[in-house]
Amino acid sequence: MELVQSVVYETLRLNPPVPLQFARARKNFRLSSHDSAFEVKKGELLCGYQPLVMRDPKVFSEPEEFRPDRFAKDKDLLNYLYWSNGPQTGSPSDSNKQCAAKDYVALTACLILAYAFRRYDSITGSSSSITAVQKAQ
């Protein structure tokens, strides 16, 4: 199940279901990246573009490559997986806007994958479609 879960996380990393996220700053703070920092004032509009963030080469090696075992090998990368309006390791609360169903989404995707691999011996396709299946005997 660990590899199936890693495949789901890698899919969400490369294809986040909500690519743009907006918010207003609740207070003044300093936003830091790897090599610079920005002063953000209370009330300023912020926008996060997930497809760009999830391909940061300083965090993810070979960021454009689909690596099914990426999250199975390095659990710390889950701290950088922000598809649900917060890190995958975080928990939804009254004080944040993290998706309350984030764990159910990943679990449902894992179950769909497990069902597909249980039912079919071979699944062929591309990143956008399934082109052939061979039913399990």
TrEMBL record:
<keyword id="KW-0349">Heme</keyword>
<dbReference type="GO" id="GO:0020037">
    <property type="term" value="F:heme binding"/>
</dbReference>
<feature type="binding site" description="axial binding residue">
    <location>
        <position position="99"/>
    </location>
    <ligand>
        <name>heme</name>
    </ligand>
</feature>
<dbReference type="InterPro" id="IPR002403">
    <property type="entry name" value="Cyt_P450_E_grp-IV"/>
</dbReference>
<dbReference type="InterPro" id="IPR036396">
    <property type="entry name" value="Cyt_P450_sf"/>
</dbReference>
<keyword id="KW-0479">Metal-binding</keyword>
<protein>
    <recommendedName>
        <fullName>Cytochrome P450</fullName>
    </recommendedName>
</protein>
<dbReference type="GO" id="GO:0004497">
    <property type="term" value="F:monooxygenase activity"/>
</dbReference>
<dbReference type="Pfam" id="PF00067">
    <property type="entry name" value="p450"/>
</dbReference>
<dbReference type="GO" id="GO:0005506">
    <property type="term" value="F:iron ion binding"/>
</dbReference>
<dbReference type="GO" id="GO:0016125">
    <property type="term" value="P:sterol metabolic process"/>
</dbReference>
<dbReference type="GO" id="GO:0016705">
    <property type="term" value="F:oxidoreductase activity, acting on paired donors, with incorporation or reduction of molecular oxygen"/>
</dbReference>
<keyword id="KW-0408">Iron</keyword>
<comment type="similarity">
    <text>Belongs to the cytochrome P450 family.</text>
</comment>
<dbReference type="InterPro" id="IPR001128">
    <property type="entry name" value="Cyt_P450"/>
</dbReference>
